[in-house]
Amino acid sequence: MLATVDALLPLSLLEAVRDVDTPEGVLEAEFVDELRNKRFGLSDTVYTQIKRYSEAVRKNQRTAQDEAVALARLIGRRPDAEAVLRAAGRYLAHEAYHTVPALTRTMVRVLPSFVARPMALRRVRRLAQRYLNANVRRVGTYVLLEVPRSVTLGVAPGSTGCTFYEATLRELMRLLVGATGAVEHTRCAGRGEGACEWRADWRSASV
Predict the structure, then answer these.
(1) In angstroms, rounded to a whole number, what is the distance separating the alpha carbons of residues 69 and 95?
(2) Can you give the pTM of this predicted structure?
(3) Which of 24, 39, 46, 189 is 20 to 30 Å apart from 84, CA to CA?
């Protein structure tokens, strides 16, 4: 069966490219076309693909994982690949977080930790399964994110591609439980260690 991902994942990659490639400040009209020719994120191709994936997200549709991998590889060729992938991870986390009902988000922040932490963990688990095809479990004071088939594995030198999932997990933890602790890449398929895995410490969480 063809592997698929939620359309939000490739959308997050393209939105990050567009954001990074958009210069700050107001542009003179005569420079817009020139910038579109020089900056991939401002191209008509990216604009069209963003519209397509945005519509797929609205309809709760999925897309072929190979499409997301191809986009990640394209980003991996950029000198600013790490910055773009981190931005994409944060974007995905924000969009996923806002699919959680507002009442639930509030309850997680105001209820005592013995009630709020299990609620937050359930939400992190569901969001990871839906948007990252990943598994989440808790071991002591740590939350482990396991990604059997990473979209960004090997798309850039070293472990640059892994920063996408690291940024997603870090931002999800911050949004849901107020945690800003360390996120460690504990296992990597690129090193022959099976699935990729990240460990987040939420001892500093506010809930």
Answers:
(1) 20
(2) 0.88
(3) 189
